[in-house]
Design goal:
Number of domains of chain A: 2
Helix content of chain B: 55-70%
Number of strands of chain A: 1
Helix content of chain A: 55-70%
Oligomer: heterodimer
Shape of chain B: elongated
Distance between the termini of chain B: 77 Å
Number of helices of chain B: 41
Shape of chain A: elongated
Strand content of chain A: under 5%
Largest interface: A-B, 127 and 169 residues
CATH architecture of the largest domain in chain A: Orthogonal Bundle
Strand order of the largest sheet of chain B: 1-2
CATH topology of the largest domain in chain A: Helix Hairpins
Largest sheet of chain B: 2 strands, antiparallel
Radius of gyration of chain A: 35 Å
Radius of gyration of chain B: 41 Å
Chain lengths: 170, 1054
């Protein structure tokens, strides 16, 4: 099956630009990139349907042999509509994020404030680790106090365990 | 056996409910199940052990599970399983009975505890009866998890949580190693049945040795052997019944069981005996040594258990028939006496309020029965006749002695190690009994609570007390019912010891599975004839036993100086400390990796993913050798121009700094796609894409009207170079992939077959549409679900204060619909009683759109209203036409729904959000639901008629006006699609349109209050101001939306 170089190049350009935009932090730019990449992907599927031909509508004189492959078209139709849905969703996200920050376009990005975020995460990790370490420490304390810490058989913290020892010997 | 397991699972699930009703009495109820299984297993004795003459039999129970991997739910009861099953069910039942008196009804989480303990008993039963090694492993891991939950029963105590996690980590680490070993072993042997693995082991090789060693790591970690021993003492933070069951009788025995299970087949694996004997002896000595240092009775027992587990490992892992026989007896003996001792400690803890042997005195005099029970158990542990422990120890010593005399050096190592260990065992046994029951002189007044270490130590060790008791140290009334379980176990210890000759044949059926052809026993006639008995005559083993007991008691007598000596011996390696440092290091490494890999937010994640994509796929394409030979530059000349325009638009969209410009440029690429589709022979695609692009731009504008004009002011684009590189690489890779993929395609299309299917089966001429609603209707169903999720997501993101169930409508709209009143002023705060603008003028105007009145005059566009008024109904008609024509011509549910959605958009743009409510006075949820109902109804409906899901049916007829009409269930499906699409558009409009308007109005009022308050009611004024500004924004944006596509489509010259 032969390819139309024009479409392949176009697809590459749209992928490239889409990815370029998508790698930014602004949600709007990400959405722009998403749309470009979405169109490029549709184009990729489209190219796979081969050369152009008669539309897949079986009418007078048209037979199954003449028509363009309908399978990619069905896939793309689904993709187009879902693309639309996701776009609307990201738009709602953008609006919501803007609404939350309500300070110009400060909310219009992936990370509200990178440093704050990291500091908070580090804090949480710290709390988690400290609690785990506390638990371990408690285990260690119990084991050591129950055993090695003290002189054997003695009543705890009395001066002369040995004397009492002798008394209670069988 | 499978039925038993199901019963366990079912009853465990019910236990929490039952506990709510029965309180602690639930333990009696749930104990009945393991007890019943115990009896059942006893009745199977004959079948398992074989009749007088017939050899040992077995019971099997197999249900295929994953035949592809050869894994089956196979269970098998042979002598070893039978023995273990009796132990776990018997001790399990007794421990559960004990729990009923141990806990009080006020115990928190009692139901969960009872359920877990019962489930544990069931799991252990599964573990020891499973024949498929993977099923065994499954139970193995379940016991780890249950043990975690049971150890951590006191969730509010730090040491409880820490110990639980430690036990879990250690045992699952071992389990993981074991899994690798199991996989290696079963792959090599070609079977997953333990019985077959043992009876016909794969020939020795490096692989088998590695596998066995890995499995041993699992067994050693489970049974708390060096270097994994430290988790068991820590696990004493669990309630005492748990310690008695899991950490004496059941779970820690799993490792011993596995060693005993594999020993007949794999004891001659290189390294097996040295490893097990060394580690076992070491563990035995270390545990006993540490045990002598403990003042907490429970910890003393815990270290004693570690020691005994080492002992057991030496014996069952030794690999001769006699050692195996001794091991089986010892296993049984240990389960009986150690469970008893733990239960006794629990009672002491309960009644005395402490487990510290320095604080208990005179208990032997006060509780003679308890002391007797404990004494017998301790004696069994020390190996004093005529108890089971003695019988077992005799057998062990004889077995090692024989092996040593026959020239097996490890026999001497084991003998000496076990003998020394036994001396220590006698010493700590004596110390335990003395500590718990002897009358000692204790200072009348305890040191003040403020006394630093002592006070906190007591709190740590006796935290359990505070769970059960009011702080009155000796106030608990002795409860003799709680003694039932220890008593029964003790009776078993005595009778089995006396009846050693009777149980010997039973256990020998296991021992006899060992091959008799080891190098050092070859040709030895007298070997393999040892029987368990109380009295073997005056033989060396008896002498050793006597010496051991004497030395042990002597050691107990000089325990003071010995303790001082112990204190001077430093820890060589502290396994617990190494464990903690390893865990900490892993934590640290994980934190560092996370920080490194997840620092840059979404751009970095995306960048990483894309780079990996380029490296893998790009690398593969670079190695490609089958480049397509035939290709054309273009399909038709115009393609080049369209493509060039699209490319330019894409690049400019990437560079655009204004939101609207970027959106329109992206729209240009979308409309470029429309042209490509149209020329290519894809009318459906062209139609749908064009509609979607239009709706998208409108939705964009609805949102963007509130955002600043310029993009990314807060987050300036950074790292342009890197982004350009990644973008270029991805673009080039995708281009190459597409190019190669096209050339690589071998088979032709399915067009012909699909066309036939569409016409003959689907009764439609439009192949694409028939595929959507019939041939590939599943896809479409899923797509509808996605759309509904999206619509719900959008609504929930925007309707912050809860979804608006009331649709914003004008007052008295019902009355207005009667036509006569249409010209009258609507009684609405936005339009009634206006004093500050030309409201009266509106009164006399004819209203084209109902909602138009809500807009202030300067924002109203009468031309737009008129146009919308004229276009709306035809548009709906067109959409319905597209819906029904779609089967045979371009169109279909999607396109039709989008057209109807556009009509709604037009109404909203011209008349504002009230107009939307007036146009379609039902919520989008109703539309979405109805659409999905139609679609799924068609899908499910065919099931009732005996056909597959989504099978379609047709009837056709000649109608007067329309001519030949073929109507099928797939059309109903398409109507569902239609409604869902309208619902989605309506939802988006209400959320991003209406609700955003409302929020903006609120903000504006908040931002500038009292600006317009003249004389009229303030609230009304605010509403007016708000709606005026909102609609102004909309009409401006509507202009942009309308002109955008028109200007950019031809060449992307925007």
């Amino acid at each position: 099956m032969s390819a139309s170089l024009t479409l392949v190049v176009l697809m590459a350009v749209m992928y490239g630009t889409g990815v370029y935009v998508m790698l930014e932090k602004s949600l709007t730019r990400i959405l722009i990139g998403f749309l470009l990449v979405g169109n490029a992907t549709n184009l990729l599927i489209f190219i796979m349907s081969g050369r152009s031909g008669t539309s897949p509508i079986i009418d007078d004189g048209v037979t199954g042999a003449d028509i363009v492959d309908p399978v990619p078209q069905v896939l793309m139709l689904t993709a187009i509509v879902i693309n639309f849905g996701i776009t609307a969703f990201i738009l709602a996200l953008i609006y919501r994020s803007w609404w939350l920050s309500n300070l110009g376009d400060e909310g219009d990005d992936v990370i509200a404030d990178e440093d704050d975020e990291e500091a908070r995460e580090a804090d949480q990790a710290e709390i988690f680790h400290t609690s785990l370490e506390d638990d371990d420490e408690a285990v260690r304390t119990v084991l050591e106090e129950g055993g090695d810490a003290d002189d054997d058989d003695g009543v705890p913290h009395t001066r002369e365990p040995s004397e009492q020892e002798r008394d209670v010997m069988r | 056996m499978i039925l038993v397991l199901l019963l366990f699972a079912g009853l465990s699930a019910l236990t929490p409910l039952l506990t709510r009703a029965l309180g602690t009495r639930v333990f009696y109820l749930v104990a009945a199940l393991p007890a019943a299984v115990f009896v059942l297993t006893l009745t199977q004795t004959g079948a398992v052990l074989g009749t007088s003459e017939g050899g040992p039999g077995e019971l099997t129970d197999v249900v295929p599970w994953i035949p592809q991997l050869g894994i089956a739910l196979s269970f098998r009861l042979d002598t070893l399983s039978w023995l273990l099953a009796l132990v776990v069910t018997g001790v399990g039942a007794l421990v559960l009975v004990y729990c009923a008196r141990y806990f009080s009804d006020r115990e928190p989480q009692l139901g969960r505890f009872a359920a877990l303990l019962l489930a544990f008993a069931g799991t252990m039963y599964g573990l020891v009866t499973a024949d498929d090694i993977y099923i065994m492993f499954m139970f193995w891991e379940i016991t780890s998890v249950l043990s975690y939950l049971l150890i951590g029963h006191y969730t509010d105590r730090k040491e409880s949580r820490g110990a639980a996690l430690q036990a879990l980590l250690v045992t699952t680490f071992g389990g993981l190693a074991m899994l690798v070993g199991i996989v290696l072993l079963t792959t090599d042997a070609g079977t997953t049945s333990i019985a077959q693995l043992v009876s016909d082991p794969p020939p020795g090789s490096g692989l088998v040795t590695t596998a066995i060693m890995l499995i041993l790591v699992g067994a050693l970690s489970k049974s708390a052997l060096v270097p994994f021993h430290f988790w068991l003492p820590a696990a004493m933070a669990a309630p005492t019944p748990v310690s008695a069951y899991l950490h004496a009788a059941a779970m820690v025995k799993a490792g011993i069981y596995l060693i005993a299970r594999l020993a007949p087949g794999f004891a001659d694996t290189p390294g097996w005996t040295p490893v097990l004997v060394t580690i076992g002896v070491w563990t035995m000595l270390l545990g006993a040594w540490r045990s002598l240092r403990q003042n907490d009775l429970k910890l003393l027992l815990a270290y004693g258990t570690v020691s005994q587990l080492g002992f057991l490992t030496v014996v069952v892992g030794f690999g001769t028939r006699d050692a195996a026989l001794a091991g089986a007896a010892l296993l049984l003996g240990h389960a009986l006496f150690k469970a008893t001792l733990f239960l006794v400690v629990g009672i002491i803890d309960h009644d005395e309020g402490t487990r510290d042997l320095r604080e208990i005195t005179g208990l032997g005099r006060r509780r003679p029965l308890l002391a007797t029970v404990a004494f017998i158990a301790v004696a069994s542990m020390a190996g004093i006749p005529p108890l089971l422990g003695f019988v077992a120890k005799e057998a062990v010593l004889t077995a090692f002695l024989d092996a040593g005399q026959e020239g097996e050096p490890w026999g001497w190592v084991a003998l000496i190690g076990v003998a020394v260990g036994s001396i220590l065992t006698v010493a700590y046994s004596a110390r335990f009994f003395w500590g718990a029951f002897a009358t000692k002189k204790i200072p009348a007044t305890n040191p003040a609570p403020a006394d630093g270490v002592g006070a906190s130590g007591v709190a740590g060790v006796h935290g359990q007390r505070s769970q059960h008791h009011q702080p009155e140290p000796h106030g608990h009334k002795p409860d003799n019912l709680i003694l039932i379980s220890p008593l029964i176990l003790t009776i078993a210890t005595i009778t089995l010891g006396l009846a050693a000759g009777i149980i010997s044949p039973a256990l020998e059926t296991y021992a006899d599975t060992f091959p008799h052809d080891f190098a050092y026993v070859a040709g030895d006639e007298g070997h393999g004839t040892y029987h368990l008995a109380l009295w073997h005559g005056l033989e060396p083993a008896l002498g050793i036993s006597a010496v051991v007991i004497a030395l042990g008691l002597a050691l107990f007598a000089i325990r003071k100086p010995f303790a001082r000596l112990q204190k001077r011996v430093p820890h060589v390696v502290d396994a617990a400390r190494s464990y903690w440092s390893i865990v900490r290091a892993v934590d640290l490494a994980a934190a560092k990796v996370t920080l490194f890999a997840q620092k840059g937010g979404l751009p970095q994640y995306l960048g990483t993913i894309l780079l990996v994509f380029v490296l893998t796929l790009g690398g593969t394409t670079a190695l490609n050798r089958t480049w397509p030979t035939e290709f054309v530059l273009w399909d038709f000349p115009a393609q080049v121009f369209v493509a060039a325009a699209m490319a330019v638009a894409a690049v400019m969209a990437a560079r655009a700094t204004h939101r609207l410009a970027a959106v329109l440029l992206v729209g240009a690429t979308g409309f470029g796609m429309v042209v490509l589709f149209a020329f290519h022979g894809a009318p459906d695609l062209a139609l749908t894409q064009a509609l979607v692009e239009t709706v998208t731009i409108v939705v964009f504008v609805l949102v963007l009207r509130r955002l600043p004009q310029k993009i990314a002011q807060h987050n300036r684009p950074v790292r342009r170079g890197r982004r350009i590189i990644i973008g270029t690489l991805v673009g080039v890779t995708m281009g190459l992939v597409g190019f190669i993929a096209l050339g690589a395609r071998q088979a032709g299309t399915m067009s012909e077959e699909l066309a036939r299917l569409a016409v003959e089966e689907g009764h439609g001429l439009n192949v694409v549409n028939v595929m959507l609603v019939d041939i590939r209707a599943w896809d479409t169903m899923n797509e509808l679900s996605v759309l509904i999720v999206v619509a719900t997501g959008v609504a929930s993101l925007i309707f912050v204060t809860g979804r608006n169930f009331t649709i914003p409508r004008l007052r008295e709209s019902r009355g207005r619909r009667q036509g006569r009143e249409r010209v009258q002023l609507v009684d609405d705060p936005h339009t009634s009683n206006s004093v500050d603008d030309g409201g009266e003028g509106d009164d006399r105007q004819h209203s084209w759109l109902l909602g138009g009145k809500t807009l202030s005059p300067e924002n109203r566009s009468i031309i737009l209203e008129v146009l919308v008024r004229l276009i709306f109904h035809p548009a709906i008609v067109v959409s319905i036409f597209l819906l029904f024509a779609g089967h045979n011509a371009p169109g279909g549910g999607f396109a039709a729904g989008l057209v109807a959605g556009l009509a709604l958009i037009a109404r909203y743009l011209a008349g504002g959000r009230y107009e939307l409510g007036e146009t379609i006075p039902i919520g989008p949820g109703v539309l979405l639901g109805a659409g999905m109902l139609l679609a799924t109804g068609t899908a499910v409906g065919s099931l009732f008629l005996g056909a597959d899901v989504l099978t379609s049916a047709y009837f056709s007829t000649e109608l007067p006006v329309l001519g030949y009409v073929s109507f099928g269930t797939s059309t109903i499906f398409d109507i569902g699609v239609y409604l869902v699409v309208i619902g989605v558009v309506l939802d988006i409009l209400r959320a991003l349109g209406g609700e955003v308007d409302r929020q903006q109005a609120e903000d504006d009022v908040d931002a500038a209050p009292d600006d317009h308050s003249v004389t009229a009611d303030e609230a009304e004024t605010r509403g007016r101001v708000a709606s005026r500004e909102t609609s102004g924004a909309i009409s401006r944006n509507a202009g942009g939306a309308a002109s955008g596509p028109a200007s950019s489509t031809p060449g992307g010259d925007a």
